[in-house]
Amino acid sequence: MEHHNSNSIKLSQRILDKITQGEVTMRPRWHFVLKSGLLLTGIALLVLTIIFIVSLGFFVLHLSGVWFVPAFGWGGLGTFLRSLPWLLIGTALVFVGLLETLVSYYPFAYRRPLFFSAIGVVALVLVGGFFLAQTPIHRQLLLSAERGELPVGGDIYLGFGGQRFADVHRGVVTVVADEQFDMQTHNGGTIHVTVTPQTRFPFGLALETGDSVVVFGPLVQDSVQALGIGRIDSDGIQPQPFPYQRQIRFFQGRPSGPQ
Amino acid sequence: MESLTDEAVVHKVQEGDSEAFGVLVERYEQKMLRYARKFLFGREDAEDVVQEVFLKAYANIKGFQASRRFSPWLYRIAHNEFLNTIHKRARLPVPFFDPDTLFPHPLSNESADRAVNENELRAALEHSLDKLDAKYREPLVLYFFEDLSYQEIAEVMQIPVSTVGVRISRGKQQLINRSPELRSAYGTP
């Protein structure tokens, strides 16, 4: 067959010629199976990575006490927004964009507006991240990092775990006195906390030594005039309401105390 | 062979009957050439690009799932190949992200005015393709010249059906705004 003037040959014949001459061959079925397997693996790894990053963000917020400060009013909410781990949030958003790109190869994603799949992805990673943050995994990894036993990612934990914010302080109550108490922070320092009539106690106030607390207020030298005080569990996961009997004793002893 | 559906012919090709692929080429050759000429503005190398489309279809034919229709699958390969051609020669910008795909849109009703004004619109489209925004051109070509449904266009372009409706509607509006005949046919000032 003459090929000098390929335009004069029918397109179908030209294509069949290329096929029979072996210029183009069919890709084997395993090629497509492998490709879709790699895509699925990539999506699964990305989802797990994003959930881990989001859960680390939740953990950092709990560890620093920032998670609880919105309960102390507008000032607390402002501090909360300023203290969010924006680096982690930015990293998670980049990965979410990557995940959206991979997911968009599937009809269930591209058949609907991007808005819906983005909402679905964000909801999935927020819920997944929140529940993962409730497990001891990050606390154990932080402890390992502090002991120098974490070969990979130790610096990340030490960096985020060691973060302290100007107006948010976490510690354990060591001394309780009238209108003030002392608390020991994670790094071993002591902060003197003064209670004023403007101090908010969204979770009640009947402190005893040994309680874990988060205190909201500006630190001047080693003292804080508290704008808000909350008792939390020792893991910093959630607020701890004071036992009813302890509240009764507290208010019987301080009839004109702030509340 | 002529009585077999596209999907049945594809099955034969997948089983190793390469000659059967010629039947598919003959069935879609003219459609692909027309699509390429409209998409690529009557470029002289449209035939070469279409040949590349068919060769890619052949190379990837084992990835075609029997549960789907062959026509949108082939148009999808053509869509990608044409975009690559445009991108390589940098004649037109290829948008990375389209905000039209972000939020849901209500589907516009096409049936009422389509029957009455389709011929005028098709003629206007034929002469004004190069004046349309790139993102409106392709769905209009697929809808008016290739007779694909909104769902099929959505599969080819991998965008939501509602976005196809929005693009066709806006593309038509651009055409109407540029054509006095269409403006009077559609009763717009």
Automatic annotation (TrEMBL), chain A:
Q: Where are the transmembrane segments?
A: 37-63, 83-102, 114-133
Establish whether keyword Transmembrane helix is in the entry.
yes
Keyword terms: Membrane, Transmembrane, Transmembrane helix
Q: What is this protein called?
A: Uncharacterized protein
Organism, per UniProt? Candidatus Uhrbacteria bacterium CG10_big_fil_rev_8_21_14_0_10_48_11
TrEMBL record, chain B:
Which residue range or ranges hold the RNA polymerase sigma factor 70 region 4 type domain?
Answer: 123-175
Domain of life, per the record?
Answer: Bacteria
One of the GO BP terms on file: DNA-templated transcription initiation
Q: Where are the transmembrane segments?
A: none
An example of a Pfam family matching this protein is Sigma70_r2
List each copy of the RNA polymerase sigma-70 region domain by range: 24-91
Residue spans making up a coiled coil are: none
**Gene Ontology MF terms:** DNA binding; sigma factor activity
| Gene3D superfamilies recorded | 1.10.1740.10, Winged helix-like DNA-binding domain superfamily/Winged helix DNA-binding domain
Q: Which UniProt keywords apply?
A: DNA-binding, Sigma factor, Transcription, Transcription regulation
Sorted alphabetically, which InterPro entries does this protein's record hold?
Answer: RNA_pol_sigma-70-like (IPR039425), RNA_pol_sigma-70_dom (IPR014284), RNA_pol_sigma70_ECF_CS (IPR000838), RNA_pol_sigma70_r2 (IPR007627), RNA_pol_sigma70_r4_t2 (IPR013249), RNA_pol_sigma_r2 (IPR013325), RNA_pol_sigma_r3/r4-like (IPR013324), WH-like_DNA-bd_sf (IPR036388)
What SUPFAM superfamilies does this protein map onto? Sigma2 domain of RNA polymerase sigma factors (SSF88946), Sigma3 and sigma4 domains of RNA polymerase sigma factors (SSF88659)
Q: Which CDD domains match?
A: Sigma70_r4 (cd06171)
Family, similarity comment = Belongs to the sigma-70 factor family. ECF subfamily.
Cross-referenced PANTHER family: RNA POLYMERASE ECF-TYPE SIGMA FACTO, RNA POLYMERASE SIGMA FACTOR
Name this protein carries in UniProt:
RNA polymerase sigma factor
Q: Which organism is it from?
A: Candidatus Uhrbacteria bacterium CG10_big_fil_rev_8_21_14_0_10_48_11
Phylogenetic placement of the source organism: Bacteria, Candidatus Uhriibacteriota
